[in-house]
Amino acid sequence: MSANVFVMVMVALVMCGQWQVYAKEEKLLVKMSLVRNASAIGAYCLDGSLPAYHWHRGFGAGARNWLLQFEGGGWCNDIQSCLARAKTRRGSTRFMSKWEVFSGILSNNASLNPDFYNWNRVKLRYCDGASFAGDSMFFNGKSLLYFRGQKIWEAIILDLLPKGLGQARKALLSGCSAGGLSSFLHCDNFKNYLPTNASVKCLSDAGFFLDERDISLNHSMRFFYKDLVSLQGVENNLDKNCTSSFYFPELCIFPQYTLRYISTPFFILNSAYDVFQFHHALVPPSADPRGHWSRCKQNPAECRPNQIDTLQGFRQDMLLALRSFYNLSRRGGMFINSCFAHCQSETQDTWFGIDSPRIHNKLPRFDQTIAEAVGDWYFSRRVTKEIDCAYPCGTNCHNLIP
Ligand SMILES: *[C@@H]1O[C@H](CO)[C@@H](O)[C@H](O)[C@H]1NC(C)=O
Ligand SMILES: *[C@@H]1O[C@H](CO)[C@@H](O)[C@H](O)[C@H]1NC(C)=O
Ligand SMILES: *[C@@H]1O[C@H](CO)[C@@H](O)[C@H](O)[C@H]1NC(C)=O
Ligand SMILES: *[C@@H]1O[C@H](CO)[C@@H](O)[C@H](O)[C@H]1NC(C)=O
Ligand SMILES: *[C@@H]1O[C@H](CO)[C@@H](O)[C@H](O)[C@H]1NC(C)=O
Ligand SMILES: *[C@@H]1O[C@H](CO)[C@@H](O)[C@H](O)[C@H]1NC(C)=O
């Protein structure tokens, strides 16, 4: 059972030598539930611990609606990095926080989360290292690693079905970063578990990882994912229509190739200058050994003109990869902004607030927050496909300066 408490957080700041109350906010903390019988289908975290989720019950008109949110947190694509991860909160529920803050799209406050606040909201904890999509294991006589993300996904769904998910009227499968990739990979499968008359849709936040060459022209993301797919046994869980059309089936882990085979309505939320992709896919340390990009990575205002050109090229490639979705997907939605951000749905100040990101190249009345764009799309209040103009466009960006 998931219990919850409200915690009053008083933030006091020393200003002008005096203590002043600077802000007062209520945070919703939700307790972790372990999936006790996950072992029945061999669903374990990397280290063999039980998988878990956090559930805050829906109420009122939202009592029969369900939002499932995959947690993100990168991947591990070789034994060494998976062994290291198994000893952290990214690979074991034993090391995870037992209480999670539910904010942004997970908030239960109507003035912070206007469309989903009263739904059942579930956060699926990430502990497999392959976006909930692997099914394999490793044992060399000494070390043991479970690569069971697909089973974890199934065990959590099976656990939630009798708790009300099985009678859902409306559902949204969401996730951020590696969890945003999970949304692409599991979207149609999710729909199959729910009543045929339920309204089921999916959202990916910062999960549109591009098949892009890095600045040294190496296909580094492709190599990374190829190792991930083969190490963790992901290929069988990729879309069959996609894998049967590709000579290199592992490419179907890239959303741009699998997207056209997803039949469930989908919303793509991503920055065109996603900071994770900028730092790890476009300019990974291996491609910039002398650190020419260090200053630009710290602060976009310090980028040289040729570096800005490279970033604009990345944006162009992302828009190209999204072209047929933009033009052809009738029930799809998108919000591609021009901030140096990564994950914008779970933090309150990017999801829905006075100064949260907006796209301004539309009429003022369409000048919406991300929460409104996603809500309008989900409830079919209007078509929401928005692409901001290129950097330095980007309104109310909450840029991540690492
Ligand atoms: C909901 O959020 C608003 C805006 O931050 C705040 O004023 C209000 O106290 C919150 N309500 C509850 C019940 O937490
Ligand atoms: C675990 O128990 C729940 C509740 O009885 C059940 O719905 C679910 O199918 C079980 N899960 C597995 C993996 O057997
Ligand atoms: C779906 O069908 C079931 C059974 O007929 C019904 O109880 C339920 O209200 C329907 N759900 C929706 C969203 O129409
Ligand atoms: C290309 O990228 C892969 C994956 O990051 C890396 O292992 C490899 O060393 C890179 N190759 C070159 C020539 O930099
Ligand atoms: C996937 O393939 C099946 C069987 O060939 C077909 O019925 C289905 O429509 C295809 N789905 C998509 C989205 O192409
Ligand atoms: C839609 O397609 C047209 C024609 O191919 C193209 O010019 C346009 O850029 C596309 N729109 C987007 C947003 O990709």
TrEMBL record:
Keyword Aminoacyl-tRNA synthetase belongs to the record: no
GO biological process terms, semicolon-separated: cell wall organization
Pfam families, sorted: PAE (PF03283)
InterPro entries linked: PAE/NOTUM
Molecular functions per Gene Ontology: hydrolase activity
Subcellular location, record wording: Secreted, Cell wall
Top-rank EC class of the record's enzyme: hydrolase
EC number(s) reported in the record: 3.1.1.-
Keywords for the protein's UniProt record, in alphabetical order: Cell wall, Cell wall biogenesis/degradation, Hydrolase, Secreted, Signal
Signal peptide annotation: 1-23
UniProt family annotation: Belongs to the pectinacetylesterase family.
Protein name: Pectin acetylesterase
